[in-house]
């Protein structure tokens, strides 16, 4: 390499001292100067340096006066470098800065470098981002890595490959954030109907010698199952085994659960039997999923056989296992067997939690055994179990169907004093509204509807049908309900609940009850606000091209 004349070296060192602040002083060592292309090229031009105060004093006074400096990159360095291959002037210096700042964990300076490169329309290669991802991993900042991965494509126009994807995925996994890793994978691969790329991605990873691990396979399978493609998930599982990976019980349980939910109980049971043949651990989670799936498929008696096998193999059923079995018997019309399961729970010292009580109360209420349901309710409260929305809804529905509307309203008032996650939903409101309208208490039903609106719960199609029927059958003279629904739309618009109002308008059009012109104008005006239109257009573009 040509030797640099002393006067050029001195000039550049002065330029570095004056222009590279606040780059750490370790970057200014002679060993690091070889990274800058200006020192490797002979030059006859001397860099002119304007006389100025000592940099430390100058920057100290600037900070006192509130003056912020430009990004810590010297224009002089890039102007004195020569073109190197296909890169633009000074690209190698930017890459050196990225490496150095990443080693130091100086992310603020890294952002300044990236911002400068973007403004100058320089190419940021994928390996630079991978360096930054690794730095984020060392600093335990997985969300920063995910954010930068998203910015790679639209902000820096850098093509993302399996290398950068795996780099970010590893950062997340190193923090033991497996659910976040799953979300990240679904966001990149599984979202918006693009799961067909998942299997091909795994093949590309293998061909690129970037070997996917069990978590990667599990993420793909989970994404396929969530999109209703459990059979594809089973194929990926088989491919996983062919490549020598040990499939654990969690991956199996995800696929089995998905197959049951899609109504493919035979395939699910076949996979369950394969687990036994391959000596894969059958734990409580796997057994509970199979029992729940069989009960969903209307086969609670077969589920009992699986329960017997479960206990014989030393697995202890939990509350989820028993509640699934109880629900299966109630839905099959065998309430007495469901109660036997409840008693069997107590014999085996299995804790009866809120979910179990909710299932029992719902089943008894559905079988019109309201007194028994009330006894279970009292027992539930006596044991300190807090009823959830399902339990409240089941009890309110049972009381309403038995004609005990006042008792149902009393439970509703109790709900209003509960935590935010136990407040009445539209289903409970519809139960009470229907009960009041059946008793010809339309005015009380309207009062309850007003309370529903005040508490931020929007009416739905069922709500509209309840009032339309009541206005036709319970009033003299009968009304078509058009004016009532029109007023409901206006009240929702006044509360800035545009989507709720739009749903009511949709019902009105279905029932051939067109809104008033003034109501139309308000709905269209609120729906067509610039931000909402822009969001809708962006959503359409995402669906079409993303």
UniProtKB/TrEMBL annotation:
This is Pentatricopeptide repeat-containing protein. PPR repeats lie at residues 213-247, 248-282, 283-317, 318-352, 353-387, 388-422, 425-459. NCBIfam families: PPR. PANTHER family: MITOCHONDRIAL GROUP I INTRON SPLICING FACTOR CCM1, PENTACOTRIPEPTIDE-REPEAT REGION OF PRORP DOMAIN-CONTAINING PROTEIN. Pfam families: PPR, PPR_2. InterPro entries: PPR_P_subfamily, PPR_rpt, TPR-like_helical_dom_sf. Transmembrane segments: none annotated. Belongs to the PPR family. P subfamily. It comes from the Eukaryota. Keywords: Repeat. The keyword Lyase does not apply.
